[in-house]
Each structure stands twice: as C-alpha cells, then as structure tokens.
Design brief:
By secondary structure, this protein is an alpha/beta fold. The chain has a single domain (about 1-175), classed as TIM Barrel, CATH 3.20.20.70. It contains ten helices and nine strands. The chain has helices at about 1-5, 65, 75-80, 105-110, 130-135, 155, 160-170, 185-195, 210-230, 235-240, and strands at about 15-25, 35-40, 70, 90-95, 115-120, 135-140, 175-180, 205, 230-235. Strand 4 (about 90-95), helix 4 and strand 5 form a beta-alpha-beta unit. Helix 3 (about 75-80) packs parallel to helix 4. It starts with a helix and ends with a helix. Bound molecules: iron/sulfur cluster. Iron/sulfur cluster (SF4) binds next to loops.
C-alpha cells in the first residue's frame, strides 16, 4: 500500500511537519476569513506542477528530512497552541495529510487538538472512521486541468473516494474546491461534479494564481460561468492580504 510505504519513512509516533503558523484568516473556500492555525504536514501522493507547497514533497529540489522534520503529536499540539489553536479553527494541510491517518501520531494529534479541526485533502484517500468522526470539515480539492497535468487521471481521480466525500458534502461536513486556470477547467470540474453526484452548493471554484493580480484576473474571466453552473466562487484572501 502506497500509504504505508510513505508512512514508513517517518517513525510511527511522529509526523513530518513542514510548518505550523497562525493565527491567520483562512484564505479560501467556505471558511474564508475564519481565524485559523495551520499545520502543514509533509509528503504527497501527487505532483502538481503549480503546487505552492513543494517543500512538502519535491525530493528533486528539497531534502524532506530538513524541510519536514518528524515531530511528536505533543510537540505539534503545543506549537499549534502558540499559533492560535483553541481560539479559532485548526486546519491540517499538506502535502496530503490523510497519508498519515493510520499512524498513532495522527490519532494522538487529533485527540489533543482543541476545537474544530479541518483537513485539506486532494480527494484521493477516503477518511477512516476515526478521522471522519473527529474532523469538523474536509476541504476536498481533486486535481484537474493544469493542476493535475503531471499525474495520470486514475491517480488523481478516484471515484470511490469522491463518492465518500460527496456523501460527507451532502451532510455539510465537506466542500469541494477546484483550482481552475481557465474556462475549460471549469467545464472539467462541472463534469466531475455531475459524474460523481457532488452537491452543487458544496462546490467552490477557485482561480489559479499565486499572486493577487493573477487570481483576480483569472477570476474575472470565469465568475459568470461559475455562477451559471450553480457553484460558489472562492478568492485567495491570504494572497491579497499578504499573510501567507
Ligand atoms: S495535491 Fe496539493 S500538496 Fe500535493 S502536489 Fe498537488 S497541490 Fe501540492
């Protein structure tokens, strides 16, 4: 199993942490503006060319032992507390954080973190029973178009996993976030939503762009199309504010 192979590179009682930061406003999706502490875990099972978190997985550029040193759950929770956990949401991001959900360190971290904990995932791994029970919100971002250009579709798009998250979306526990570069990407997102019975009102379309001017321009081009499909639109507030 891919998940266990990746997990085996880090001691069972630790998680690889690229960064813990906050408090900052959540910059994307339905919780935009919410006070948040972010925990960014290392490793990913995809290789998206526009990824803004390559320090979590790109071994061609980074020594992951340096960029994502293993830390105990207790250390992570203490650091999160120093960065706003307990007075806002905690967002576990990556990388792909669900790669770690079978480890004791994941269990201990989720048990000890205070308040509402969110997970940002690429939608290729279903949450297990413990994770589903503990996590208040899943932000699910399947990779399409330019984002998904480096990985074959069967690796990026896993129908059984999307079905699980579609159920959670219907229960209000998950939202889908598609990063799109252009109108063709929006149409690809719409096909996925239709094919996997994802509730339209739980879909956010977010323009690609790592600077405020770039995502704003891309957003102007697609916003009417997004509304026509019955989806929501997400900006990238953190880039506009320069907080991350
Ligand atoms: S799934 Fe997310 S973290 Fe992984 S490569 Fe793609 S954008 Fe980066």
């Amino acid at each position: 199993m891919e998940m266990l192979q990746i997990a085996g590179t880090v001691p069972e009682d630790r998680l690889p942490v690229q960064e813990i930061f906050g408090p900052v406003p959540q910059g994307e999706g339905p919780y935009t503006g919410r006070r948040a502490c972010f925990i960014r875990l290392g490793r990913c099972n995809l290789h998206c060319p526009p990824c803004d978190s390559k320090r979590t997985w790109d071994t061609s550029r980074y020594d992951l032992a340096q960029t994502c040193p293993p830390r105990t759950a207790e250390d992570i929770v203490e650091a999160a507390g120093e960065h706003g956990a307990g007075a806002g949401i905690v967002v576990i991001s990556g990388g792909e954080p669900l790669l770690w959900q079978r480890t004791t360190a994941w269990h201990r971290m989720l048990t000890a973190l205070p308040g509402d904990v969110h997970v940002e995932t690429n939608g290729t791994i279903s949450p297990n029973e413990f994770t589903t029970g503990r996590i208040a919100h899943f932000s699910v971002s399947p990779k399409i178009g330019r984002m998904g250009a480096a990985d074959p579709a069967k690796r990026r798009i896993r129908p059984a996993v999307l079905a699980d998250f579609a159920v959670l979306a219907g229960q209000g526990k998950a939202a889908f976030k598609f990063v799109t570069a252009d109108a063709a990407d929006v149409e690809e997102a719409a096909r996925l939503v239709r094919d996997h019975q994802i509730p339209h009102d739980r879909v956010w379309i977010m323009p690609l762009g790592d600077e405020s001017a770039a995502w704003t321009a891309a957003g102007r081009d697609i916003v009417a199309q997004v509304m026509d499909h019955g989806f929501n639109f997400s900006g990238r507030l953190h880039l506009t504010l320069g907080v991350r």
